[in-house]
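TICKET: design request
STATUS: open
ATTACHED STRUCTURE:
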């Protein structure tokens, strides 16, 4: 485990002044700006749809847009950029020659990607609470009065992160396995489009909670006649268990090869 810790520290050190770190902060802020503009464009006096105004802002607006569009693309970008740090200069052979287990190098990439996703979710959560208070000041009719439901927000953050682990492990494997930047990007974009189709289809809930790109939204979606509490549990369980399985398979595949 000490080798893994050292490898992760090296990966985190390499993140300084990189697009990967910048994207983890800028992307959630961009989503919050889009949500704020959308909410303010509604008719004056109208309240947000949902069980409560805060629930509408958190789930119906922010996490819906985040899960169907921003998160899958962010994971694709982060995994591709992290792998590209080594592909660009052909450093994989040098890394695998170091006196540390090869699997620690691979898992360091995966864990670092997870840390970047967690950072983006933290920015989203804190920014969401602040945005609600700002919107309440600008337009009190929205009903976003304090207190901020921090517990609900961070519960949705935890669900989203857990359900996204399978996608993170899958894209990381692909990004490390193929040197071409276009391969993970193409697969990530294609999966996002398919996931978007499943997410907006009310009757595709079965496939949505099974498809890696759709699992995050299935984990936080409103419970109605099409999505139930069992759908939340299924998406989270598949995200965590599937992520662990794919992480093991990815490490086995990458470390058994002579050159990446």
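STATUS: resolved
RESOLUTION: sequence designed for all positions
ATTACHED SEQUENCE:
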């Amino acid at each position: 485990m000490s080798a893994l810790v050292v490898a992760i520290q090296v990966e985190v050190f390499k993140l300084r002044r990189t697009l990967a770190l910048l994207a983890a902060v800028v992307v959630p802020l961009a989503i919050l700006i889009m949500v704020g503009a959308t909410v303010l464009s509604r008719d004056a006096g109208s309240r947000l749809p949902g069980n409560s105004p805060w629930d509408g802002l958190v789930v119906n607006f922010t996490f819906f847009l985040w899960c169907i569009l921003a998160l899958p693309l962010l994971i694709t970008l982060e995994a591709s950029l992290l792998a590209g740090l080594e592909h660009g200069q052909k450093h994989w052979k040098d890394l695998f020659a170091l006196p540390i287990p090869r699997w620690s190098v691979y898992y360091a990439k995966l864990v670092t990607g997870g840390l970047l996703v967690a950072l983006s979710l933290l920015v989203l959560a804190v920014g969401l609470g602040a945005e609600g208070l700002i919107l309440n000041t600008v337009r009190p009719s929205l009903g976003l009065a304090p207190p901020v439901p921090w517990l609900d927000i961070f519960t949705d953050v935890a669900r989203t992160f857990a359900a996204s682990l399978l996608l993170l492990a899958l894209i990381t494997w692909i990004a490390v396995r193929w040197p071409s930047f276009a391969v993970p990007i193409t697969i990530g974009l294609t999966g996002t489009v398919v996931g978007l189709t499943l997410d907006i289809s009310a009757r595709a809930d079965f496939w949505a909670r099974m498809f890696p790109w759709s699992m995050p939204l299935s984990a936080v979606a409103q419970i109605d006649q099409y999505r139930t509490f069992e759908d939340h549990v299924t998406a989270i369980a598949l995200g965590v268990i599937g992520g662990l399985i794919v992480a093991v398979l990815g490490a086995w595949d990458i470390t058994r090869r002579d050159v990446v």
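CLOSING REMARK: The two ends are 23 Å apart (CA to CA). Residues 2-255 form one domain.
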